[in-house]
Amino acid sequence: MQEYLFRTLQDSTRPVIQVGEHLTAVIDTGADIPVCSNAKMLVSKYGAVEIKLPRENKRPRGIGGKIPGKVYMVKSFTVGPLTYPNIKFFVPNHPTMDDNFLFSASMFEG
Asked: Mean pLDDT, the chain, as a whole number?
């Protein structure tokens, strides 16, 4: 198993890592899908495209389970030394988080 070290924000009470210049992410053990707080940034910086989910998967659970939003696909998303092909992000219609991303802890399992 390989280990990867990420810089954490020392002044945060939550597990927050630095994922790029001026970009932060909260690590959440209960997240089903990564979340991005800014659709415009996701599209312009990462080339994300909105996708339609099958009717039975219309709303991913998490963030209280009932927040409306859209799902976007990024062809290649890199966090430190890790690259995720064809990764989906949920973007709430009205973001309430201070950080740019919320990542599922399972994204970092070996």
From this structure: 84
Give helix then strand counts, H and E, for the chain. Answer: 1, 7
- CA atoms of 36 and 81, how far apart (whole Å): 20
Token pair, residue 57, equals 């998967």
Q: pTM of the entire structure?
A: 0.83
- Detail the DSSP E strand segments found in 9-81: 16-20, 23-28, 35-36, 49-51, 69-79
Per-residue pLDDT tens digits for 24-45? 999 988 888 899 999 999 999 9
Mean pLDDT of 85-92: 93
The token duo for 75 is 């062809």
DSSP H or E run through 90: strand 82-92
* Residues 57, 60: Cα–Cα separation, whole Å: 7
Geometric angle at alpha carbon 26, from 4 and 99, rounded to 5°: 125
Check residue 41 and give its pLDDT: 92
Q: Determine contact, residues 37/69, Cβ cutoff 8 Å.
A: no
